[in-house]
Amino acid sequence: MQAHASGEEGEAERRRVLAGLARAYAAPLRRFFERRTARGADVPDLVQDVFLRLSRMPDPGAIEKPEHFLFVTAANVLKDRARREMVRGVGLHDPILDDSLPGSDLPPDRVLEGREAAARLEAVLRTLPERTRDIFVLRVLEGMKMADVARALGISTRAAEKHQAKALARVTEALEAWRHR
Question: Where does the RNA polymerase sigma factor 70 region 4 type domain lie (predicted)?
């Protein structure tokens, strides 16, 4: 029972030390990051990352020079972020702003009709046998060559063509019936 209590006391002390360091260094770390990053919205995340790394330490109270440790950690957070952004190509594209996109030239009723046709197509595809549906999707929607579809599914090209014809007949029949409703 005594070991359990000392474990709880140790954890409480650890939390107290972390809270004290956060109170003392959160603002200086924010200023540090604000001077070194172009995106101000990232600053709180960067500060949090420093304290997250600190919280993973078994005994943050044992740090002899906390200011030095925290700012070296902050510099490492920036380096890690720069590496991640380089790998992801951040900054190599222009952001898409909703108001910069042109509107559709299609009238709303035409858009609705297209959505209904797509929903009908999906419903018809769900009724097809799995292999037939897979072949239709790979061939028609994914644009694969019939020989590649057959090879991917481990069947002959002729068998794949039969499945494709069956799927096309069912889809055509269903869409024609929907149009003439």
Answer: 120-170
Q: 120-152, pLDDT tens digit by residue?
A: 888 888 899 999 998 998 898 888 899 998 998
| Token digits of residue 94 | 């222009």
Residue written as tokens 């057959």? 150
Query: Would you say residue 17 lies in a domain?
Result: yes
- Domain-located, residue 15: yes
**Cβ atoms < 10 Å from Cβ of 38:** 6
pLDDT attached to residue 101: 58
Query: For residue 168, what is the domain's CATH number?
Result: 1.10.10.10
Mean pLDDT score, 70-84: 89
Task: With beta carbons less than 8 A apart as the criterion, state whether 153 and 135 touch.
Answer: yes
C-alpha distance from residue 174 to each of 77, 117, 167 (Å): 57, 10, 11
Written as six digits, the tokens of 74 are 């902050």
- What are the residues whose beta carbons fall under 8 Å from the beta carbon of 163, sequence distance 6 or more? 131, 132, 135, 136
Q: Is 59 helix (H, G, I), strand (E, B) or coil?
A: coil
pLDDT at 2 over 50: no
79/129 same-domain check: no
Range of the domain at 71: 9-88
Measured between alpha carbons, how far is 39 from 4 in angstroms, rounded to an integer?
Answer: 45
Answer yes or no: is 24 within a domain. Answer: yes
